[in-house]
Write a structure and sequence with these properties.
The protein is of the alpha+beta class and about 110 residues long. The chain has helices at about 1-10, 40-50, 60-70, 80-90, and strands at about 15-20, 20-25, 30-35, 35-40, 95-100, 105.
Length: about 110
């Protein structure tokens, strides 16, 4: 991921995902809702950016832990729930959806 970001910066490419009224600029590590910047922790941003890069795809808690936190992370799956709750509180309920019994996905537009 870091290599892709570095190449993107060199080529001046911007990776921006739009989800409803939320804009996720991966290159600038910036999130805006209705044009207003929203401050997220690094993990919140990484979680949001990962799911936004895969719109509509459902990820289990375990898959999100592996992809966002890494295989070496000692915490449990409830860590994902806590971060999703924080994202919902900062961005609104319609952005990260729960796929009951399966995991989470990005809602809204693509």
């Amino acid at each position: 991921m870091a290599r892709l970001r570095a190449v993107s910066r060199r080529l001046n490419l911007r990776e921006v995902h739009e989800v409803g009224e939320v804009s996720i600029d991966v290159s600038a590590a910036e999130v805006k809702r209705d044009g207003v910047r929203v401050d997220l922790t690094r993990r919140e941003f990484d979680l949001l950016a990962f799911m936004a890069a895969n719109p509509g795809r459902v990820f289990s808690r375990g898959a999100l832990l592996d992809k966002v936190w890494g295989l070496d992370f000692p915490g449990g799956e409830r860590t994902v729930d806590q971060h999703v709750a924080q994202l919902r509180s900062r961005l609104g309920d319609g952005i990260v959806e729960t796929a009951r019994g399966r995991g989470y996905r990005i809602g809204g537009g693509g």
